[in-house]
Every structure is written in C-alpha cells, then in structure tokens.
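Hi team,

Below is the intake form for 3-oxoadipate CoA-transferase from Azotobacter vinelandii. Please confirm the fields before the structure is written into the shared record.

FORM ID: S-0412
PROTEIN: 3-oxoadipate CoA-transferase
ORGANISM: Azotobacter vinelandii
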Amino acid sequence: MAGLDKRVNTYEEALAGLTDGMTVLAGGFGLCGIPENLIAEIRRRRVKGLTVVSNNCGIDGFGLGVLLEERQIRKMIASYVGENALFERQLLDGELEVELTPQGTLAEKLRAGGAGIPAFYTATGYGTPVAEGKEVREFRGRRYILEEAISGDFAIVKGWKADHFGNVVYRHTAQNFNPVVATAGRITVVEVEEIVEPGELEPSQIHTPGIYVDRVILGHFEKRIEQRTVRA
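The structure came back. Fields below:
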C-alpha cells in the first residue's frame, strides 16, 4: 500500500518536471477553487513559453495573472478575459496568443481529453468566428463544428480534502473546472486544505478518484474574493 502514497512535502516536488514550453491545465473559476500555491510555484520556477488552459486568467496580481506579469505564458486558451486588465492589454498588443473558447465547449474539450476522445461535434459556435477553419457536419438537419479535445503536460488542481492515495473531494462551487482538469493532465497535481487517512473519505462522495492523481500536497490558501458585495 505504501507505493500508492501520493503525498509530497514541498511545492518544488509537486511540480518536478515542469519545463519551458509545456501545456498546463489549471482548475478554478474566477478566483474560486484556484490552485493558488501551485501557480505561485510556477512563477518561482520562472518557466517560460507556457500554454495555459483555464476558464480565465485570474486577476491583476493574483492567480494566473502573476504568470502574465512575468511573461511566462505564450498562449492562453480560455473562455473569459474580463477581470484582468493585463490579459486584455497583452492580447491587444499581440504579446499573448489567445484562443477564446465557449465555456461549455472548453469544459467538454477537457472532459474528452481525459476520456481519451480525440474530438467531438458541437453546435456551439457554428456561424461565428469560433467555427472558422473547423470541419462542419450536419446531423438531423442541424450543423455542428468539430472541436478537438485538450490534454496537457501538467494539470494543477485545488481540492478540499484528499487521502494519501489521491482521492479528492471538492467543496461546493470549487468543483467548477477542477474535476475535468484533473483527468486531462499527463501529470496531475492536487493541492488541498486537508489530507485525511485512507478510509476516512466516503467512497460515494469522492469527486476525483486517485487513479487520475499523481501528486497531492497540503496547502494554505488566501482565498481572495473576486468581487465582494455586502449590504450598506
């Protein structure tokens, strides 16, 4: 059983093998459920030329936004730009290659990548710039475009609890993109708020089975709130 223990003690160990030019898949939505410490370790390692796949690119000064500051991202595949002024500026200035993808299509690209499905047809984006250069087929009188799946060299994921064997539970809306990202990395690294003993997680409550996870690390999180709305 000891050979199945996937815990690592340092973030340096957690991202061992990450090098320039790799594709990194990052879980999270806005600032909810982002692997903030793994992102900080990518920054510390100064790797360059990355292709990063995530719903969005954090905000200025936090989350994936810190990798933009250091010019570590060459290409961003995302569905949303809005909260990051630096992202917008680098896109408009031609510094950053951006592939904007409908949100549901992005989720399915990652799910398909994790399931070993190379491509799929979807009606989303047909007749828009999203469909340019893509194969179109008609099914039952409706036209669909062919979208290729996404997988990556590393998947970085934020969980709530995990056991020694990499079985992961997410907390509420922090599931978002994390479960599909976790399946689609050649090396999947999960940082969590608590690591429990084997057998403590109820099997029916596990969101990501340990078969998908290569490394687990215990982290401490700032958990910034993107937009705080309170009553006067």
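SUMMARY LINE: DSSP finds six helices and eleven strands in the chain.

Thanks, M.
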